[in-house]
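Give me the fold.
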Amino acid sequence: MNIMDKFSLKNKVSVVTGGAIGLGKAMATALAQAGSHIVIADMNLEGAQQTANELREQGVETLAVQVDVTNERQVDEMVEAVLRKFDKIDVLFNNAGICQHVKAEEMSYEDWNKIMNVNLNSVFLVSKAVGKVMIRQNQGNIINISSMTGVIVPIPQCQVAYNASKAGVIMLTKSLAFEWAQHNIRVNTIAPGFMKTELTRPFFEGNSAMTESWLDLTPMKRPGVPEELGGLAVYLASDASSFATGGVFVIDGGYTI
């Protein structure tokens, strides 16, 4: 087989949580360009539908599903909706996430739990629900979006809950990779550095001392853009990475050096 053929996702079905905008949309776009049918699962149904409509122009089938990934019932209903349309799930991208810059001693327990629920608990809930499908299929591929903050504490911002949640995603990834290898399911995580998205663009365009510090400590002296994760997304979702599981793939412009 030609090596480039291994990157094909033709006739695969990929579910992307938080896929309406930002990193999720960029990765869904890359998967669609590789031939995968796409499910955009997001709380923002209008945005999910818009993204799904755009991706349909790639010649693939799409589905937009409204879901709160911290709600187990809604997650189960999302999986049922995907199976009704496609009858299988080949790839899951757990992408939904939020962040707060708050000092630990000033963070409320409510805000701590909110970040843990969205960033970590949701990855477990969605992986569990989709994992059951993949176990029945005896095949599947899960890619979680963690962060370089799961392996290093960036400065100068204080974001203890975010850092802890992303470290949790990395260990959850490794644990699931171990448990589900026997079912021919691979589980990996992408750990991005500072990325310029719809949510972070105001930080970078504001030329704040915080973003200056970020870029000073990044050897490439710039933030990444979502599209720069697309190649890795396709690699991990495809047979090109058939021996990769439990891996943490840091894409950070060199920040963690």
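The chain has a mean pLDDT of 94.
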